[in-house]
Amino acid sequence: MSILVAGGAGYIGSHVCKMLNQKGFDIVVYDNLSHGYKEFAKWGEFIPGDISDEKLLENIFKYYNIEAVMHFCAYIEVGESVINPQKYYINNVSNTITLLKVMLKNNVNKFIFSSTAAVYGMPERIPIKEDDPKNPINPYGRSKWMVEQILEDYDKSYGLKSIRFRYFNAAGADEDAEIGEAHNPETHLIPLILDAALGIREDIKIFGTNYDTKDGTCIRDFIHVNDLADAHIKGLEYLLDGGETDYFNLGSGEGYSVREVIETVKRVTKKDFKVVETERRPGDPPYLIADSEKARSKLNWSPKYSLEEIIKTALKWHIKLRGKS
Ligand SMILES: NC(=O)c1ccc[n+]([C@@H]2O[C@H](COP(=O)([O-])OP(=O)(O)OC[C@H]3O[C@@H](n4cnc5c(N)ncnc54)[C@H](O)[C@@H]3O)[C@@H](O)[C@H]2O)c1
What we know:
Rossmann fold; UDP-galactose 4-epimerase, domain 1
C-alpha cells in the first residue's frame, strides 16, 4: 500500500515526503513540476504528471495500490489569482475534482487537503477558530474554500474521509537543507527578507505601517514546514485508523509583526539591509493568528519551532539555493 503525494515536489509536499519516508511509509510523488523541482522528489517513486490527466492517474492507482492521497497541488499566488481567476479555478478546483474522481473510482477514501488561512478573509476575531466565518476575499482563497465544501459533500454522498489543514504562514526549511522554499516568483516574506540580507535584493518593503497593531505593521503567524509535515503524518494516521472527516487550523498561535520578523532576520544573519516603508496592499488583514487548539487536542499535535529556528533553518537552505543561482 502506498500514499500518493500530489504536489510532492513542491515546498511543503517535499518536506512531508521526507517525513513520510522516515516514518516508513511507501510513497508515490506525482507532480507536473510547474512549480516544483525534480531534485525535491528524493523520497519514494517520482512520476511526473498533471492531476488533470485522468488516465495516467488511473494507471498509478491501479499499479501502486494507493491507500490514501495527500494533495498539495495548487497555484498559490493571491495577486495572480485576482488577475487570472480562471487559471486558479481550473487548477485548484476542477483538477482537484478529477483527482477525487479517480480516487472514488478506485475506492480510495482517505484524502488530506492543503487549505489556507485565506478561507477566512478578513477575520472577525483573533485568534481565528476553525468555525469562524469563511469570507475569502480573492479567487485563491475562494478556490480553497470551494474544495473544502466539495469535500464535505463527498463525505456525505460517497463516504470520502478527508482532513483539511488550513495553514497559516508556512516558513523555514529542512534542518539538513536538502530541500526548502524556492517559489518562483517568490512572494513570501521570510525568503524575500533573506534575499535582502544576502544582498540579492536591494531592500525589503513593508506594505503599510499604520495598522492598528503594536508597531503599525501586519501581524502574522509563522509555522515551520516540519511542524506542518508532522501534522500531516498525524492526520494520515488518524484517517488510516478510521477517523472521520475533519478540518484544522495549523499555526503556532504566536503573532509576529513584519518589523519583528525583519529584526529577527537581522539578528540571525548579523546583516543590516535597507527597509523601505510603503503603502498598504489592498486585502491584507492586520492580524492573522491561528487558534490551533483543535489540532493540539484531537491530533496530539504541537508545533516545535520558534521564529528564530524558522529563520535559522530557512537561512541555511537559502544560502545553498542562492549559491546555485
Ligand atoms: N506556502 C504557504 O505558506 C501556504 C499557505 C497556505 C496554504 N498553502 C497550500 O499548500 C500547498 C502547497 O504549497 P507550496 O508552498 O508547497 O507550493 P508549491 O508551489 O511549492 O507546491 C505545489 C506543487 O504542486 C505542483 N502542481 C501544481 N499544479 C499541479 C498539477 N495540476 N498537477 C501536478 N502538479 C501540480 C507544483 O509543481 C508544485 O510542485 C498549496 O495547495 C498551497 O495552496 C501554502
